[in-house]
Design goal:
The protein has no helices and eleven strands. By secondary structure, the protein is mostly beta strands.
Length: about 120
């Protein structure tokens, strides 16, 4: 079972920056869509940013201009996506989750994979 693993979370002061990364525990044959979600205490999980296989990106209004999603977007890889977060503010405090829609092997169906999440805490 492929696992997605996030890294790079932590505690940062308001105005600071962090870079999150997401890797797979095993080589994934092909990835079709990759996203970052976040969930703050007492709130629903929300989409932060996404990147498609053709490189198109989308961002939530709350993070536009501050966050940047990136990926090499290549097959047979364990390196999936990064999220560069700048000008962080306390409202960005949440658990950040990596998501990938992918084929593990060529003959498998496209499945959704989630990471366990990494905590980002922004102090004021």
């Amino acid at each position: 079972q492929v696992q997605l693993v996030e890294s790079g979370g932590g505690l940062v002061q308001a105005g600071g920056r962090l870079r999150l990364s997401c890797t797979a525990s095993e080589i994934i044959f092909s990835v079709y869509n990759m996203r970052w979600y976040r969930q703050a205490p007492g709130k629903q999980r929300e989409l932060v940013a996404s990147i498609s296989k053709d490189g198109r990106t989308n961002y939530a209004e709350a993070v536009k201009g501050r966050f940047s999603i990136s990926s090499e977007i290549r097959d047979s890889t364990v390196d999936l996506i990064d999220l560069e977060m700048n000008s962080l503010n306390p409202e960005d405090t949440a658990v950040y989750y990596c998501f990938a829609s992918a084929k593990y092997v060529p003959w498998s169906d496209v499945r959704d994979y989630w990471g366990q999440g990494t905590q980002v805490t922004v102090s004021s």
